[in-house]
Design a protein that fits this description.
The protein is α/β, with parallel strands linked by helices and 180 residues long. It is 40% helix and 19% strand. The protein has a seven-stranded mixed beta sheet, covered by helices on one side.
Length: 180
């Protein structure tokens, strides 16, 4: 190979490496976090959705608890990956006033089929595209899944995460929110 060809090849490799680093830290780093909206006063407890038996369920029934709302779908691989960790945390912190709620945009039949294979210990409710669009008020401007919003006991938005939430990361937040 000629010396100039090697120089161009090295330059192209360095450019691809720099682009990869920029993508990694720009999109998957800070970009993966959905910033909380400017006004964290969101009436999450006014939301009423249907459970898997067709009954209306108000998120207001969990007023006064630390509420973790996870938007998900049965076809979403990262959603399915994080749910066992959510179940573990729900069981571990139930007595400390923690409540997880999953909101899926699937049909009840699909959610029931999913739950037969992957047991979930917290309520799964059925949303629709309007509920998904409403998640933009929480910071999910990309309308992507999974999306998780954590609310303090007063119903104020504490944090959001677009993409899979690591169990240890979420547990640190739960400890912070439940420690006097």
């Amino acid at each position: 190979m000629k010396r100039s060809s090697l120089a161009w090849l090295a330059l192209a490799g360095a450019t691809l490496f720099a682009a990869g680093i920029g993508y990694r830290f720009g999109f998957l780093g800070k970009g993966a976090e959905a910033p909380p909206p400017a006004a964290p006063e969101i009436p999450i407890f006014d939301l009423v959705l249907t459970d898997l038996k067709g009954r209306p369920q108000s998120l207001g029934q969990w007023r006064g608890k630390v509420l973790i709302v996870n938007y998900w779908a049965t076809w979403c691989h990262p959603c399915r990956e994080e749910m066992p960790g959510f179940s573990r945390l729900q069981e571990k912190y139930r007595d400390k006033g923690i409540q997880f709620v999953g909101i899926s945009i699937d049909t009840a039949a699909k959610i029931v089929e999913f739950q037969e294979k992957t047991p979930v210990v917290y309520p799964l409710l059925i949303g629709d595209m309007a509920v998904m669009e409403n998640s933009a008020k929480l910071g999910n401007t990309r309308q992507a899944l999974p999306f998780t919003a954590v609310f303090d006991r007063q119903g104020r938005l504490f944090s959001t995460k677009l993409g899979r939430v690591a169990e240890p990361e979420l547990e640190r937040q739960l400890i912070e929110l439940t420690t006097p």
